[in-house]
Design brief:
nine-stranded mixed β-sheet; 479 residues; 16 helices; five-stranded parallel β-sheet; single chain
Length: 479
């Protein structure tokens, strides 16, 4: 199976059921499939050949979902770009991926045109929005193209996407993913988590993220309606849950915090919500307790990276149901246990597996693991060794198999010869009742080499001094 098969199947099975809702527009699976076919055929008619890359620079809309599946049907490779990237990063990704076309929101067309003279591969710039664009226009291309299924044969092992996650060092690297790898990652989720079936789901995260691709797949898999928000705001999310009777959404922990702190949260009927999936970092137990009281639904944490192929570990809804025990509450700081179709090991620098509660680098072997870095065989060889993907995360596993991420290996602070992991300190900071957000970094220190510095944002209306927060940490952390 390939990605295009999913929407094609829904168009046959439930043609008049709602597929995508965006603002005041709604499309059935038949209408969505026809628009997707038109776009795929239009791209082929422009001369784009199977395997060539097409970049997307856009905020969320129904059109982004159409692009996701149209590229799959045409055998083209998706290159999603973070619209918050600097112009230099956008230019680098376009050139490095050798993208032949760029589909951009009208608001990003001036940027795209300013970059055009320095780009070596982009031949087609397609403007996308409600207003007609000069040059190639998205809706005009659809009007002129056939609604029939594209005459392109796509194999599961062909490249589906080049993903450029933000990096902490150097320029981002393009992670290569095939149709088979992407669907294998999603299969892990369906086995591990009771995803609501035939009920609306909310796309409040950016499409260019892993969650964006995940929700695009989940809608046809679960025979659900995908309700799309242009951007995340607590006000819009809460209103959408009530209006569309949302049963499921994916977010990051900071979004959960924002929803809980929104003044209008109590004014909305959120009774339809059944499951919130979050990822990117563990959630502070205090935040989860607050969220459970307000949202009254199940929670699930997922762990994965672009290299690992998405979702390889889960903290299930059952793991989130607290029973008053300290052990169960501490488990919330973990990222759960490995998925059924993923193997996770924690190893030392020699590749030997470490004992329980000892820190080691997290490595993964799974059908969902990526194929390597685009045009970077040296880094690929350093990351994929004997079939295992070395993720760069330092973690330990407890006696029950739950994995606790300490931090990124490269972000470790070495102070006086002692290894310190920022994430451990950040977790303690988040437990302070006045702290809204926190980040811990290493700073140069003449005596210790590096010292630990925390940058803290307080909750609205909250008060705390630096000394109070330091005392809070001193009571909970080794000196």
């Amino acid at each position: 199976m390939v990605h295009g098969d999913l929407v094609r199947s829904m168009a046959r099975r439930s043609p008049e059921a709602a597929a995508i809702v965006f603002e005041d527009r709604s499309f059935t699976w038949r209408q969505a499939n026809e628009r997707i076919n038109r776009l795929a055929n239009a791209l082929v008619a422009l001369g784009l050949a199977k395997g060539e890359r097409v970049a997307i620079l856009a905020q969320n809309s129904h059109r982004y979902a159409e692009i996701y599946f149209a590229l799959a049907k045409a055998g083209l490779v998706s290159v999603p770009i973070n619209w918050q990237n600097t112009p230099a990063d956008v230019a680098y990704i376009l050139d490095h991926s050798e993208a032949k076309a760029l589909v951009a929101d009208t608001q990003y067309l001036p940027l795209a045109r300013s970059l055009a003279p320095g780009l070596h591969s982009v031949k087609h710039l397609i403007g996308m929005g409600d207003e007609k664009s000069d040059g190639l226009d998205y809706e005009t291309l659809l009007e002129q193209a056939s609604p029939e299924e594209p005459a392109v044969q796509v194999s599961p092992d062909e490249l589906r996407a080049l993903v450029y996650p933000s990096g902490t060092t150097g320029m981002p690297k393009g992670c290569m993913t095939t149709h088979r790898q992407s669907l294998a990652s999603f299969a892990n989720l369906l086995i591990e988590i009771p995803v609501p079936m035939e009920k609306p789901q909310l796309m409040a995260v950016p499409f260019f993220t892993g969650f964006g691709a995940h929700l695009c797949l989940e809608a046809p898999y679960s025979r659900s309606t995908l309700v799309v928000l242009r951007r995340f705001t607590p006000k819009d999310v809460l209103a959408a849950i009530e209006r569309h009777r949302i049963a499921h959404m994916c977010v990051v922990p900071t979004m959960i915090t924002a929803l809980c702190e929104a003044p209008e949260v109590a004014a909305h009927d959120l009774g339809s919500l059944e499951l919130v999936v979050y990822g990117g970092s563990p959630i502070a137990p205090s935040v989860l307790k607050r969220a459970a009281q307000l949202l009254k639904c199940d929670f699930c944490q997922v762990f994965g990276t672009a290299e690992a192929g998405g979702l390889v570990a889960y903290l299930t809804p059952e793991d989130h149901r607290l029973d008053g025990s300290q052990a169960k509450e501490r488990r919330l700081l973990s990222t759960g246990r490995e998925a059924l179709y993923a193997e996770i090991r924690l190893v030392d620098d020699s590749g030997k597996e470490v004992a329980p509660y000892e820190l080691g680098e997290l490595i993964v072997r799974s059908e969902s693991s990526f194929s390597g870095y685009w045009k970077n065989p040296e880094q690929t060889a350093a990351t994929i060794r004997d079939g295992w993907v070395y993720c760069g995360d330092m973690a330990y596993r407890d006696a029950d198999g739950y994995i606790f991420i300490a931090d990124r290996k490269k972000e470790m602070i070495v102070s006086g010869g002692v290894n310190i992991y920022p994430a451990e300190i950040e977790a303690v900071l988040y437990a302070h009742p006045a702290v809204a957000q926190a980040a811990v970094i290493g700073v140069p220190d003449e005596r210790w080499g590096e010292a630990v510095k925390a940058l803290v944002e307080l909750k609205k209306g909250a008060r705390a001094t630096a000394e109070e927060i330091i005392d809070h940490c001193r009571e909970r952390l080794a000196a």
